Amino acid sequence: MSIQNGLASSSRRYDCENCPLRPLPGFRKFERSELAFIDKLKKGELAVDKGATVLVEGRRSAHLYTVLSGWAFRYKLLSDGRRQILNYAVPGDLIGLQGGVMGEMQHSVEALSPMLLCVFERESLHELFRNHPGLAYDITWIASREERMLDENLLSVGRRSAIERTAYLIAFIGSRAKAVGLNGGRLTRIAFTQQHIADTLGLSLVHTNKTIRKLMDRKLIAWRDGGCEIIDHEGLKQLAGWEGLGKERRPLI
Amino acid sequence: MSIQNGLASSSRRYDCENCPLRPLPGFRKFERSELAFIDKLKKGELAVDKGATVLVEGRRSAHLYTVLSGWAFRYKLLSDGRRQILNYAVPGDLIGLQGGVMGEMQHSVEALSPMLLCVFERESLHELFRNHPGLAYDITWIASREERMLDENLLSVGRRSAIERTAYLIAFIGSRAKAVGLNGGRLTRIAFTQQHIADTLGLSLVHTNKTIRKLMDRKLIAWRDGGCEIIDHEGLKQLAGWEGLGKERRPLI
DNA sequence: CGCGGTTTTGAGAATCCTCAAAACCAGTGG
DNA sequence: CCACTGGTTTTGAGGATTCTCAAAACCGCG
Q1: Domain check: are A65 and A163 in the same one?
Q2: How far is A56 from chain B (nearest CA, A)?
Q3: Would you say residue A145 lies in a domain?
Q4: CA distances from residue A187 to A166, A231, B19, B117, B152 in whole angstroms, order as listed
Q5: Together in a domain, A163 and A127
Q6: Number of domains comprising chain A
Q7: Which end of chain A is more exposed for a tag (fewer CB within 10 A), N or C?
């Protein structure tokens, strides 16, 4: 019901049993009883506009969200406005877990597209841990996965050159997007701005632009309609020296 | 029994009930039953030399470790040898959780000092999740805490200048060391090399050295006996624009 | 057509890097 | 006790990368 800053609760509601994401090959199969429990936990859905701020650094959030559709990014700010994008959230990802599980958020989350979010009560995590050890384990697995992505990002920002970093980021996001069928399973458009890339990689906008041009010259990507198009995914991975994502199926909560 | 690469199992053994770390103010109090359970899980202790590699990227590890004494760092390598240090582990920290909970390690861990490690079977996590939801919750909390530290490190490497980064890192490690009484609770010596700082911050060794000199000129730190001495902790935090660690007590498993 | 957001370009400057050598320092063996 | 060794820190110099500033071009949208 509440509408603020682009957030609005939706009237429609997907049952977890019929979740459109579950059939995707990237997710592990769940027991019927697990699905029923998750469905019980699910408090509703939230539709947010592109550009809306879903979570705010420094504030407590009573909710956790799972991305049903659309995508977003997590970021932190320095007091003078410098921004660092930490990671992206695509369909199936859990948002808000990082907030110390309880407590103040240490980062903000902003939507990169219109999104649909499943809403969970942070409090109900306790019930989940008490009654569904398998799901509790999944939560930990999800946290650990986020950590591995951060490790890789840190390696990138710390030790890869500008062009390697950029290649890595585009290949990385492309892989994740493809895995959840963001572009109908095709590996194509990534709809964000060069400013986002710059803020993810710790580069200036101008230098990011020049680096992207080099990738275009090498026919690895194209930039069209305000977004990045991957032309040679293997080439990007090779340039970055990146192995690609693991192929394990992940849980969806 | 086995000795390899500086790893050797120790004959002595601390009972978890009498763990020397638990009385420290940074850790939350545990129930007697929880302690008994953890003690049952603990498979033994491992003593490792300074410089020993505790975990290796790309390999599976059947074990998880909790640092009893000493400290270490987690890192990743690029194929040409460039190294990125991801984070440090001090007493009380859990090592090896990041390995996808199961599966191949995505990073290596190397001891910065002689260490004593409590050894746990990775397999026994399942039992923990099944029978002790409170402890399972703690594991997730620990993973989420690591994530928050990584977020902050990423912000640092991506968006802070060399001198801000260095100030941040030293203040950060100093705070953590103090919280677990690494120097008897005093906030003083941090025993590592400038190469470690460089590889943590994504800087070259030479530039790191010159940056450290600037911090010395400003009387924020001193460099003595192969280690860093903090002179003005507040000054470091202010220079870095860093708030400091949260003051919540953390679980110790 | 005008507007705001985004991308592109150019130019000069600051930061940070590499290379190379020297200084320093603790430990080892003669 | 001294010379030697390997690891670490320091210094200098030149160069590459990346940054900031500023302006123009582009583009979808109202």
Answers
A1: no
A2: 15
A3: no
A4: 17, 9, 52, 45, 31
A5: no
A6: 2
A7: N
